[in-house]
Amino acid sequence: MSQYTLSDDQITIRDMARQFAAEKLAPHALEWDEKRHFPVDVIRETAALGMAGIYVSEASGGSGLSRLDAALIFEALAEGCPAVSAYISIHNMVAWMIDRYGSEAQKQLFLPPLLTMEHLGAYCLTEPGSGSDAAALKTRAARDGDHYVLNGQKQFISAAGAADLYLVMVRTGEDGPKGVSTVLVPKDTPGLSFGANEKKMGWNAQPTRAVIFDNARVPVTNRLGEEGAGFRIAMSGLDGGRLNIGACSLGGAQSALMKALSYAGERKAFGKRLNEMQALQFKLADMATDLEAARVFLYSAASAYDRQDPETTMRCAMAKRVATETGSAVANQALQIHGGYGYLQDYGIEKIVRDLRVHEILEGTTEIMKMIVSRQIIASNGMGR
Description:
The protein is an alpha+beta fold. Helix content is about 50%, strand content about 15%.
């Protein structure tokens, strides 16, 4: 629906991603969900479309697109499968961090296979004892000559076991954020192992495992940035990550809305099609309106990111909260319109409901988003106008 202020190029990018989703993702999404299959072969096809390094600089071999462009892509892909789109967004975050913070040697070594998706990336921040309180992470990287020796465990890591490169936040110094550093750990590193694939409510088209380090030796040359810069690096990725996951919610909800519209035009009750009943008409109107409002909000936050607005972090937190809550609400209403059929796997609605629910938790919970916003408005006595 929304044209916002999209350029012709942006509309072309969005439509390209939407076509890929319709042809390559949507026809298989239910099967992937049921079989807990991670469609690596299909995901790798997105690299040829420039979707492996969407906002990696052109100088490093990426597409050099904006965060608004990225939101358009992830929203469109999520119309086919939110879980697959969300993983592609994570891969892009890893590639961007290497481009943004890596040395030239690191870029030359790690980026080329990520940008072709010969290698897949994974982002490792959360631990069993530190989720929202990310600065409390315990995974230790002890210096031993030209190496770090890693010990500890990361939790809820998307693509763990399947990914080839792990961007890991580790503790190299004191407690708190100043003691955190970032290292790149290849999959074949001795001492690196993985837990069982978690049995989840949704996101079954991508594996989620613990990442375990048992005296895993990583060269110091694999550290991104300086020692102690890791928490800042981790947080810098989250503004964009929140936009991306919000976009995935919008795309999933848009798919649910379209399914509800189609069903309401076919299903009859009490001698009328559902879409002839005012109560259902009003419900559909509310769903479309709420979704469009969230979409414009998210696009506005992405534009703020692109122009380096000083309130970017707050606006991304606001948009993430609104987009993910709205996405879940719209998908749930779509299920309600389907009645009992919405509860069946064959109609695809319940999968969207399950996939979108976790978006209110990852990349910062709804409560953390409120904390970010409240701190900002209290400190500044309001928002910039």
